[in-house]
Every structure is written in C-alpha cells, then in structure tokens.
C-alpha cells in the first residue's frame, strides 16, 4: 500500500532527491517549494513517472503558518492521511554577527526551524489517528557543531535537534518515530549559493572555499550525495527503523567525529 509523504522544500536539492527516492518506492508525494511554474510542473511529471504513486504540488510559503496548515490539510484531503513528514525546507545567509541583517535572522529561523513546528503540530493528530507515522527532520552537521558566520543557520539547526528529541518523547507510545538526518556538505544550490558570500567573509577565492572550508570539514574529502541522504530517509521510514526514534544519523564524511 502506497504511503503518503509530505516533503517541504522539495523542488530542488536534497528535498527533490528525497521525493525521487520515495516516489521510486511507489509512494504518493506532496512536493513543496519555490521555483518557476514550468520547472515545478516538469518535476511533478518526472517524479510521478518514477513509480506507481501520485504526485501533487503545494506552494505553501514556509514563513506563513496558515499556508503550512493548508498544505497539511490538502495532503490529508487528497490522500486520506500523512504517513511520512520530511521537514527539509531551509535557507542560508553567511555574515559576521555584527553585520548579520536582523531580517535575515528572522527569515532563517522561520523557515529552518519554526516551519517544522507548524508542520509537525498539524500532522501529529493525523498520525495518531492512523496509529503510526514517521517524522524525519533534515538538520545538518550544524545541528551538532558550529561554524563561524552562520549564526542564524546554526541556531536554527540546533533548535531542530531539540525539537526532534522532544517530539520523539511525546510520541514514543503512539508508534510515531521522530528522527534527524545530519548531512555534511552536499553540492546543492543552497551550498553553491553560499560559496561567494563565504569567500567574501573569509577573504578567499571560491575554489579555496570548496577545498579549504567545505571539504576541510569532512575527513573523507568528498561531498555527500543527495542519493545517500534519500536512502537514509527511506530507511528511517521503513519497518526496520521502528525502534529508532529521538536520535540522528550523521552523513558527514566523519566531520562530527572530530
């Protein structure tokens, strides 16, 4: 029986890769995110062709609680419930703390942390009614360790770790698991976009940022792939992970082992 999987921030990057993984497994997918309409339409069609499930798109803005509520309601109305919620939406800004624009702080906290509070609070009643569910939070190695010039992002991701653990404890007797995936650096559009700002902040070239900042953090000296993250999400949504809850899986090339 096909599951219904809601994935925020899934029109590109990691979220899109996770959507592809679940679609290939035959699940119904609710895509969400920004982008040009023709690109979103193409993604819906392409993902729908990967498996036997259905794919819909909802344009909810992750800074607007009422739109988040509408997205969850739409998913439930369309498919009869939600089996898997993947909180993936995220943005980044790189700046020294004294120059960090307050509006950037507010937006990052809203999208990277607060949006997950809203998706979870609206999804949990549906999962409780169904008697099971999976909540998967895409966090980051920055949920475990810090890096300079990323005050808002690191704060939001640390908050996501606390949210993951708290909700896992609340739902432990309801057959609903809550876990975090903490990837290292993946060459997604989000990461590529922050390279110029990091170069400016550190007085480096963009190539130096890749080799001396990004991959310097990962002992394997290799970027994590979207496919590896998708496979981990599929595991956490499987029966094999029924007793895995309130924890995280790091996919960071050894970064947080140091």
Automatic annotation (TrEMBL):
Top-level enzyme category: oxidoreductase
Sorted UniProt keywords: Oxidoreductase
UniProt cross-references to SUPFAM superfamilies, sorted A to Z: NAD(P)-binding Rossmann-fold domains
PANTHER family assigned to the protein according to its UniProt record, in alphabetical order: 3-OXOACYL-(ACYL-CARRIER-PROTEIN) REDUCTASE (PTHR42879), 3-OXOACYL-[ACYL-CARRIER-PROTEIN] REDUCTASE FABG (PTHR42879:SF2)
GO function terms (MF aspect): 3-hydroxybutyrate dehydrogenase activity
InterPro entries recorded: 3-OHbutyrate_DH, NAD(P)-bd_dom_sf, Sc_DH/Rdtase_CS, SDR, SDR_fam
Protein name listed in UniProt: D-beta-hydroxybutyrate dehydrogenase
Stretches of the chain forming a coiled coil according to its record: none
Gene name of the encoded protein: bdhA_2
PROSITE patterns associated with the record: ADH_SHORT
EC number: 1.1.1.30
Entry similarity comment: Belongs to the short-chain dehydrogenases/reductases (SDR) family.
Organism listed in the record: Martelella mediterranea DSM 17316
A GO BP entry: monocarboxylic acid metabolic process
